[in-house]
# Entry
Amino acid sequence: MKTFFSPKSAAVRAAVLASATVPILAACGSGSDSETITFAAIPAESSSSLESDYSNITSLIEQETGLDVEFQNASDYAAVIEGQRAGQIDIASYGPFSYVIAKDSGVNIDAIAAPTSDPAQQPAYTSLAYVRADSDIKGLSDLRGRTVCFVDAASTSGYLVPMEGLMNEGIDLETDLEAVLAGGHDASLLSLESGSCDAAFAHDTMLNTLVTSGQVDDGALRSVWESEPIPEDPIALNLDTLDPAVAEQISTVIREKANKPALVAAGICASEGECVLPEEIEYGYLPVDDTDFDAIREICAATDAAACHSIN
# Structure
């Protein structure tokens, strides 16, 4: 059974957690005197597939640093933010919005790289609104009075960017529709497919993932809206727990070698075609820095989303 939350209560929960310093995950962060590095990622999909998707990246870090990497399955976006704040997570793969929440609320992290399927293009992706194939919904303006699935109050493509799109149509997320938070991009679309909502938001590769895995029939869902390009999900290092030399080494490794050609050369992947990276990335990671996420800060200023207040 899936758990749904109201956007207001979830946003308040995220804001409260972002101001707290209590442990969220069980494992302790490495610090400079440990042989183990803890890596976590926001839950775009189920925890089991998430760990598998990042296995080649964690193997690369182990091979290059000589340190063990322990992957942590986080329960939600706030768990990753608070895990880094509490010193329990050394490396985290964020969504752009959850990264900004963490960074601007005082978590001492450094965005080092983000994924792209084309090494000639800066990392970016989009948010899409989906409906069932037989739906009469044609665009965001038709969502007034409907039940709409979102991902998480700290999700960029599953909440913040859709909120901006709805506002541009004159629709208030809290009063003009019934909003539910599914907890993951896969859960959002699966809830739509099962009839639990009339429309759903997710990032641009999620539907293909579900169709390929057989969880959703090809053609069962269709998109009715797509956002402008969004800065891609950054990998961020915890500067409070990682030794500076180790942090610099990891930064260089991910920026230069966390891509399919380099992973094949390192013997981690047998071939580029068989080399699995998170969210069906076709190439790998390119360098980014904090200024690349100013666009998210601008959306926060425009929408005044409740979760944005957790950064102050």
Confidence is low (pLDDT under 50) at residues 1-32. The longest strand covers residues 109-116.
